[in-house]
Design brief:
Blueprint: E1 8-9, E2 12-15, H1 19-30, E3 35-39, E4 43-45, E5 48-51, H2 66-82, E6 86-92, E7 95-98, E8 110-114, E9 117-121, E10 123-126, H3 131-140, H4 149-155, E11 158-160, H5 171-189
Parallel strand pairs: 1-9, 2-3, 2-10, 3-6, 10-11
Antiparallel strand pairs: 4-5, 7-8, 8-9
Helix pairs in contact: 1-2, 1-5
């Protein structure tokens, strides 16, 4: 794959700088896992440019209040600032490639192309993508999906936070997904002894949000 000599390396690339992206980046940081967060919440294509995602149907009866969401965002942004998370709001992910069977791929399974360069990572977290588009992506990779889409994606190092099959998850559900994914990634990064979760301002979220 051309152009990888100057690529930047990290453990996880989070695609999306909104609430889901901040939530999983915060959870990873608390677990001692490094990540780079880039903008552009769009659906992935393997070896092709990101395409505009199909809109998800929002269930207003399940959506949390704007005030609750803003409060969660405020806490997450404060944590990101105080812990110097690597958030690149001006950098967009434009293409996602699966690494080939060589020495480079033994360390990093994915290459995220951006206008500023290539990011190599073993884990990718997507924060907005329709399930139908994800299934097409796996089919293009020649991967048998079966009945469990999430399990299939995790097996190749791709995780979902803030993504619902038919409706947009509530902020409370996004936080739950971030905890689950953060725990799964940290268990792979530290298979023998997962480090203690770091403390910070994030746990001070209002009781209703957790």
């Amino acid at each position: 794959m051309p152009g990888l000599s100057g690529a930047e390396r990290t453990t996880t690339v989070v695609i999306g700088t909104g609430l889901p992206g901040l939530a999983i980046a915060t959870e990873l940081r608390r677990r001692g896992v490094d990540s780079i967060i880039v903008d552009r919440l769009e659906s992935p294509g393997i070896g092709q440019s990101f395409q505009k995602p199909a809109p998800q149907r929002r269930d207003d009866t399940e959506a949390a209040s704007i005030q609750e969401r803003n409060e969660i965002l405020r806490h997450l942004r404060n944590y990101a600032s105080s812990h110097h998370l690597d958030i690149r709001s001006d950098t967009s992910a434009v293409m996602l490639d699966k690494m080939g069977p060589d020495a480079e791929a033994s360390l990093h399974r994915w290459a995220v192309h951006t206008p500023d360069g290539v990011l190599l990572a073993d884990h990718i977290v997507l924060t907005r993508c329709a399930h139908s588009q994800l299934r097409r992506m796996l089919t293009d990779l020649g991967i048998s999906i079966g009945t469990n889409l999430v399990a299939t994606m995790r097996a190749i190092g791709i995780y979902l936070v803030g993504v619902g099959e038919l409706i947009t998850p509530t902020p409370k559900e996004v936080l739950r997904q971030a905890k689950v994914v953060g725990r799964a990634i940290s268990a792979k990064v530290y298979p023998d002894s997962v480090p203690a979760v770091l403390t910070g301002s994030f746990p001070a979220l209002p009781a209703a949000a957790i």
